[in-house]
Every structure is written in structure tokens, then in C-alpha cells.
Specification:
- The chain is an alpha/beta fold.
- It has a domain of 58 residues.
- Helices cover 28% and strands 26% of the residues.
- The strands form three sheets. The chain has a six-stranded mixed β-sheet with strand order 5-6-7-3-8-9, with helices on both faces.
- Helix 3 crosses helix 4.
- It is globular and about 55 Å long.
- The two termini are 38 Å apart.
- The structure holds adenosine-5'-triphosphate (ATP).
- The site of adenosine-5'-triphosphate has 11 residues, from helix 1.
Length: 262
């Protein structure tokens, strides 16, 4: 399905949120359609997780509007999920707690995510990467219309990151859902996303990776492209090509044209 003709399932308009005198979200608007994969990127503390929580209705913005399609099923893989260490819980037991999770579906997703061998293992004994896959299975179990992944490759080794990112468009196709994810791994995520939104309190820049990747501004933002004959792209650098400055209290000071800050 072409994302331009697809239905909007979630939109945000002019979101603003301040916490302890710091502007965390400043005039954020976005539109997410069925089948679309949008990735939020930006430095630590730039508001990515907060934006996700506001979009999901877990936190309220001070102003602005979030509209979710009525009845929208959201599978959310949070950045962190603490479990009571004293509670004995196997992976299967944990997944059974998800809404609508029967043994057959649990078995399917464990197999699909290559973690069947962990089915009876205690959740407290999982490695970081294994736990991420279990959390992903949990998000998938509810047959989401929207899959929200907050840093899905945290604690995952490089091979595992490649596998997980290549899985995301497959899951989108299989479920016919939209995906909204947070990532720091620009070079890995480019192939697995339709649109990148670069956040730093406000939206610094955004666009389709194919278009953005041939734009000189993209190269300044995310590093050099693959050169002819080069087998591997250099790791993307996180640098901002800014026409504005972020002040300590979160407000943004704009500069006159020609006075850009790199
Ligand atoms: N309840 C709160 N009270 C005060 N400050 C908060 C609160 N919630 C978030 N913040 C601040 O808002 C900013 C954005 O936090 P957020 O977790 O959204 O960042 P992030 O982009 O997800 O960061 P990271 O990449 O490190 O996960 C941070 O500076 C954080 O300290």
C-alpha cells in the first residue's frame, strides 16, 4: 500500500511540553499512516521517549493535540521495563500476561523471533538482547495496527541489530501495521524506515531517507555516503547542521541566515 494514499492512524499537532522549566517538546507535529515506518532520532534527552509517551496517551502535553484512530491497537516496546526480581516468571508466563496471548500465538512469535529455546527460561536470567526480543514478541502478540519501538536494539550485538532492523519492514508487511521507532543507529536504520524525524525538543529536520540521503544537508547531518568501490559505509556521525541554538532552559534561539552553527 502506498503510504501517501494510506489512512492516517495517528497524528500530533503543535505539541508542547515543559518539565521543571525545561522545554521538552516544542511545537511537534507529525502524521503516521498505515504501513509507514517513522524513526525518531536525536541526542540523549532530546525528548524522543517523552514524545512517544505523549503520542500513546501515557503522558499529557501542556498544549497541542494528539489524534489516534478509534480502536487503534498499539504494540509498545518500552525502553525499560522493570520486573519484580522476586517474582518467578518464565518467558512464556510473561508473554501470557499480554492481552489476547494464547499458546499458539506465543509459540508463533517465539519461533518467528528465533527465541523458542527461551520459552521456559526465567525472564530474570535473559541477556539484554534476549530480553529485547521477548519485549518485541509481547508487543507483536496483540496484533498491533501500530508497533511502537523505543530503542529496540538496546543491548543487542551488531549482528543482532542488523537482523532486528531487517525484520522490522518484514513485520510491517506481515501485520500491515505502521511502525514508530526510536533509534540512535542512523546508519543501520536508514534502510528500514520511510521517514526520519530528527528531534531536539523541536523537529530539527525530517524526510524520506532516499531523498535526504542525496541531499548535501543529509551528508552534513549524518556523515558521508558510501563511495564507489567502498564496501562498508562509515559509521554515521551525529552532528547537527543548525540554524539555531539550544539554550539551557530548552528554548531555541534562531540565527540570521548565513550564521549557521554546525
Ligand atoms: N518527569 C520529568 N521531570 C523532569 N524532567 C523530565 C521528566 N521527564 C523527562 N524529563 C526530561 O526531558 C528530557 C527528555 O527526556 P526523554 O526521556 O524524552 O529523552 P530521550 O530523547 O528519550 O533520551 P535518551 O536518548 O537518553 O533515551 C530529558 O532532559 C529529561 O531529563
Amino acid at each position: 500500500m502506498s503510504s501517501t494514499s494510506a489512512a492516517t492512524i495517528l497524528s500530533a499537532s503543535q505539541l508542547r511540553l515543559t518539565r521543571q522549566h525545561k522545554t521538552v517538546l516544542d511545537n511537534i507535529s507529525l502524521n503516521l499512516k498505515t504501513g509507514q515506518i517513522i524513526t525518531l532520532i536525536g541526542p540523549n534527552g532530546c525528548g524522543k521517549s517523552t514524545l512517544i509517551k505523549v503520542l500513546l496517551g501515557l503522558e499529557s502535553a501542556d498544549s497541542g493535540k494528539v489524534t489516534r484512530r478509534p480502536g487503534l491497537r498499539i504494540g509498545y516496546m518500552p525502553q525499560r521495563l522493570s520486573l519484580d526480581q522476586r517474582m518467578p516468571l518464565t518467558v512464556t508466563g510473561f508473554l501470557r500476561l499480554a492481552r489476547g496471548a494464547g499458546n499458539e500465538r506465543i509459540g508463533y512469535w517465539l519461533d518467528r523471533l528465533s527465541i523458542s529455546a527461551l520459552a521456559q527460561q526465567s525472564v530474570h536470567d535473559l541477556s539484554g538482547g534476549e530480553w529485547q526480543r521477548v519485549l518485541l514478541a509481547r508487543a507483536l502478540l496483540i496484533k498491533p495496527d501500530l508497533l511502537v519501538l523505543d530503542e529496540p536494539v538496546q543491548g543487542v550485538d551488531v549482528q543482532g541489530q542488523l537482523e532486528l532492523y531487517s525484520l522490522i519492514p518484514q513485520l510491517r508487511d506481515e501485520l500491515g501495521c505502521a511502525v514508530l521507532m526510536v533509534s540512535h543507529d542512523l546508519h543501520l536504520v536508514m534502510a528500514a524506515t520511510d521517514e526520519v524525524i530528527c528531534l531536539n525538543g523541536h523537529v530539527c529536520c525530517s524526510g524520506h531517507p532516499d531523498t535526504v540521503s542525496i541531499d548535501p544537508a543529509y551528508i552534513r547531518l549524518f556523515g558521508a555516503r558510501l563511495q564507489q568501490g567502498q564496501k562498508q559505509a562509515p559509521l554515521a556521525h551525529y552532528t547537527h547542521h543548525h540554524d539555531h541554538q539550544h539554550c539551557a532552559d530548552g528554548h531555541v534561539e534562531h540565527h540570521a541566515p548565513g550564521k549557521e552553527i554546525l
